Structure formats: structure tokens, C-alpha cells
Fold these 2 entries.
Entry 1:
Amino acid sequence: MTFEQELYEIVPELKQAKMLHQELVNQKNFSGYPPNSYAERPETSTNIPNLVFAGDWVKMPFPCGLMERAVSSGLLAANEILHREGLQRRSLLSVNPEGLLQI
Ligand SMILES: Cc1cc2nc3c(=O)[nH]c(=O)nc-3n(C[C@H](O)[C@H](O)[C@H](O)COP(=O)(O)OP(=O)(O)OC[C@H]3O[C@@H](n4cnc5c(N)ncnc54)[C@H](O)[C@@H]3O)c2cc1C
């Protein structure tokens, strides 16, 4: 199996280990970030007063992915609700990419 071969290349000591159990999981539910998908994603805020989006599929103004993206988008959504209620937004700290990595 390719994974096993690669594992032994990375950690050769494991070749001597006794395998007790192995399971290959091949699911189709992993988050996807295919090229050019950015433009298609909805932003946190919508024109509908009581609808905001959060989740790892939402368009984000700073680089993040997977769980980090899910949490960050939730914070942006919470901030949007605070703003709509006339309350103070919470500061969110993130990296500030330059050059090619700029969003
Ligand atoms: C196998 C696997 C391994 C992963 N490993 C990592 C990792 O190591 N590190 C990492 O950062 N990320 C990892 N991820 C990605 C991470 O799990 C997701 O990015 C994150 O969970 C996305 O959070 P979310 O809240 O956007 O969506 P989800 O966690 O998918 O939550 C969406 C929720 O909405 C519910 N739902 C869907 N439709 C409806 C409906 N119609 N009505 C009501 N509820 C509904 C679902 O049941 C689900 O509970 C992994 C994902 C998978 C599948």
C-alpha cells in the first residue's frame, strides 16, 4: 500500500513494528478548495437582515482553511450580528500576506 511505503520512508524504524490493525478510509466529505472557487463563495454578510453565513466554505478576507476557517468565519458572522445590533465588533487578529499570497 502506498501510504504504508511512504510511512516507512519517513519513519524507517516502524518497519519493525507489529501492525495490530489498519483501516483505509476513503471518504468524499472533506472540505474542498479547488482553484478558482474563491469567486463563487458567498461572503459572511448578505442583503437579508437576519441571514449571515459561517462555515469552511464561506469567502474569507484573510487566508485560513478547514477548522480554522470554520471558526474564523463564525467569528466574522458573530461580529456582523454585533454590528447590526449596534454593538462593538471584536478585533480579529490574522496574518497580513503580501505579494502572491495577497487575497
Ligand atoms: C475526515 C476528516 C478529517 C479532517 N481533519 C481535519 C484536521 O485535521 N484539521 C482541520 O483543521 N480540519 C480537518 N477537517 C476539516 C474540518 O472538519 C472542517 O473544515 C470543519 O469541520 C468545517 O466546519 P463547518 O462548521 O463549516 O462544517 P461541519 O463541521 O461540516 O458542520 C456542518 C454541520 O451542519 C449539519 N447539517 C448539514 N446539513 C444540515 C441541514 N440541512 N440541517 C441541519 N444541519 C445540517 C451537519 O450535520 C454538520 O453537523 C477534516 C474533515 C474530515 C471530513
Note: The first helix runs from residue 2 to 10.
Entry 2:
Amino acid sequence: MPDTVLDSGTILETEGLTKEFLGFVAVGDVSLKVRRGSIHGLIGPNGAGKTTCFNLLTKFLQPSRGTIRFDGRDITRMKPAEVARLGLVRSFQISAVFPHLSVLENVRVALQRQRGGSFDFWRSDSLLRRYDDRAMELLEDVGLIGFTHRPAGELPYGRKRALEIATTLALEPVMMLLDEPTAGMTAEDVDRIVNLVRRVATGRTVLMVEHNLKVVEGLCDTITVLTRGRILAEGDYASVSRNPEVIAAYLGTDPSIAGASAHG
Ligand SMILES: Nc1ncnc2c1ncn2[C@@H]1O[C@H](COP(=O)(O)OP(=O)(O)OP(=O)(O)O)[C@@H](O)[C@H]1O
Ligand SMILES: [Mg+2]
């Protein structure tokens, strides 16, 4: 059946997702499909409803209307912790960095949490060593091996965000939601995070909100453009950046998309 084939390629699907705040429609009738294994960008001007969308997907907000399916399950009524257990995990929110703990300890705590470790577990040396092995792997993955024993609070901003990604990865997400992973970063940090996102996207799905359109262009397979809570356009970067409605929505807010129209 063609429907089944299509559905097996979709990991996250919303239908008519709507969130109203006292009658104000922050997210309106959003039907979104995210392909398994893809890096999907969610972009749009300030106030478009991107973060509200993320809050709905991770159940930090209850939708006013609509449904959310993740990995074949209806998660519309689930609690945030249940959704996280299913593997839909949001970075930069669930995973707080403890500033006084070392980089390694932060990842260890995240691992312990994931395994539901109790004090008894802590006393088992072999388990502790297993946590450490996995923690070192994760630090390697995010390029933080050189910072292992530094207090997390002393890390430069870009490295702190890499640590947040490591603690999120400790939860073994099937799908990661990243809200503006490069916000406030230097160009060098942006490059590093782009490479990191590409690396962590291997074998999982990523949905990311990102204002830096160069990052979106470089990373995202599919892009959904939101304006005023509604989907304005969807497609790959080339088609979305050429879309006159998208250009109009961005005009005055982002010269790079407006510029794309002049050349193409
Ligand atoms: N709890 C709330 N109560 C009332 N209005 C809200 C609430 N949360 C968000 N909004 C409104 O909903 C709209 C969408 O906000 P949201 O934060 O989702 O936008 P965004 O696309 O993430 O913007 P930005 O790019 O600035 O992060 C905004 O007009 C915002 O003021
Ligand atoms: Mg936002």
C-alpha cells in the first residue's frame, strides 16, 4: 500500500496543530511531516511560532487543537517525560548544564538520569566505569575531550552548547529538536556546531529552528517556513529561498533571502 510506504518514511507528523493564547493564534493549523533521518529546518521571522511549535511537540504546551504522531504513536496527550522516553528530545531545555560540575560529570549525570540510576547504581564501580566510557565517547563526538575536567561554567559559549548537545545525546534521542543552536555564536563556533549537527544527525532525525540562513542552507534537507503561526512554504533551500511569498515575509528582516531573489 503506498500509504504505508509513505508513513514508514515519516517519523513526526502533525495535523492541524494549533495553539491559541487568549484567542491569539501563535500556531495555526500546522500540518508538518518530518522525514525519518532528515535534517529539517523550521524558519520564519520573529514571533512566527517556531518555539511554540517546539513546545507543542515536546508537550511543554498542550495544543488547542490538532494531533501529533511520533514514530507511529499518537503523542498528543502525552506528558513531556513520556515523549522524551520515546526518544523525541529537545536540546537546550531539558538538558541544563551544571556550571560547578566538570564537563565529564555533566555528561555522567545525564547518562545516569537516562538509565534511571539510583544511589546503589552509583556505588557499582563497573557501572561507573561504563558511564565514564560512554561519557568519553560522547565528549569525543562533540569535540570536548580537551575540556573533560574543566568546570562547565568556565567553558566558552560555543563549547557550552556543544556540552548541551552531549548531554542531550546521552538521552539517546531518536529525534532531536534544536532551537537556534548557533544563536549568539562567533563564526568559528558556528562552523563547529554545523559540523557537530551533521555528525549527530547520522542515524537520527533533527528538526531545527535556525535564524542563520547559511546554516540552514548548508544543513537542512527540507525547510518549512512559518509566518504568523502558519506554514507559508516548504521544500529544499533552493525552492524556498526563491519563493516570492517567503522573500516578502523576510524582506527587511533578512537581506540574504532577499538577495537570493535578485540572483535567482
Ligand atoms: N505563553 C504565551 N502567552 C502568550 N503569547 C505567547 C506565549 N508564547 C508565545 N506567545 C506569542 O506567540 C507568538 C509566537 O511566539 P514564538 O516564541 O513561538 O515565536 P518564534 O517564531 O519562536 O520567534 P523568535 O524567532 O523570536 O524566537 C508570539 O507573538 C509570542 O508573543
Ligand atoms: Mg523562538
Note: The longest strand covers residues 10-21.
